[in-house]
Amino acid sequence: MKKYLGSSMTAFSAAAMILLVIGAIAFGVVAISSERSFATFFLLLLCLSGSFLTLYLLWANRRQLFSWGLFFDHAVRIRTFFCRESILNYDKCKGCGIGVYRHALLNVASSPFGTNYAFIFLSLKPFPEEYRSSINLWKPSEQQIKVQFDRKLYEYLLSVLSQKQAACLESDYRKYIEGITE
User: Fold this and answer.
1) How far is residue 9 from each of residues 4, 68, 105, 121, 165, measured CA to CA in Å?
2) Which residue in 42, 77, 81, 144 has the most C-beta neighbors within 10 A?
C-alpha cells in the first residue's frame, strides 16, 4: 500500500511553496526586464531572497513535505526527494499509535473553529506524549513517520503489526477517533 506521509495540509503547503518560489522569481525577472532602476533591482533582490528562503524551508522540511511510504507486511519503505531510501521495520518500533491536532485560527487548540486532523505514527524511539495532541509539531525523520489517518491503512496495520502494537493502535483509535475514553 502506497501512502503520502503527511496530510492534505502538508501537500497543499508543499505545492504553495513551490508556486511561491516560481512566482517570486518570475515576478522579479519581469520587473527588472520592464525597467532597469534601483527600485526594480531592489525588488528583484527581495524576490530572489524570498525564493532562497522558501527553498531553504522546503529543503529543511523535505521529510515532512515530500515523503511517501510503501507499507509492506514487515516494514515501511520510506522514499523522500533528495534523501536516501530508508526502511522502518515494525518489529523494531517502540512508538506506535494515533496523534491529533486542531488546525485552527492562530493555531489555538481550544478554538471552536478549525479542522481536526489525526495521524498514525510509527517510531523506533518511544513516542513523547507531549506531542499526542499536537502531532503537527512532531517532525518525521528516518526513525519516525506520521501519516494522516486513513481507515484502510489503519486496518492494514492492525493485521501486520505485533499484537502489542496493534493493541496500542486500537486503543488510540477508540480514544482519539471514536472519542471514547477508557
Assistant:
1) 12, 15, 14, 17, 27
2) 144
Helical (H) or strand (E) element with 46: helix 38-60
* Dihedral (CA of 38, 27, 48, 13) sign: positive
Q: Which helix (H) or strand (E) holds 181?
A: none
Tell me the whole-structure pTM to 2 decimals.
Answer: 0.81
Please give the grid coordinates belonging to residue 78: 520510506
Q: Please, how many CA atoms are within 13 Å of residue 134, restricted to the half-sphere of its CB? A: 9
Closest CA to 157 of 127, 120, 123: 120
Q: Is residue 168 within 8 Å of 93, Cβ to Cβ? A: no
pLDDT in tens, 103-123: 776 655 566 777 888 999 999
Cell numbers standing for residue 33: 526586464
Q: Name, in order, each residue with C-beta under 8 angstroms of 151's C-beta and a sequence gap of 6 or more.
A: none
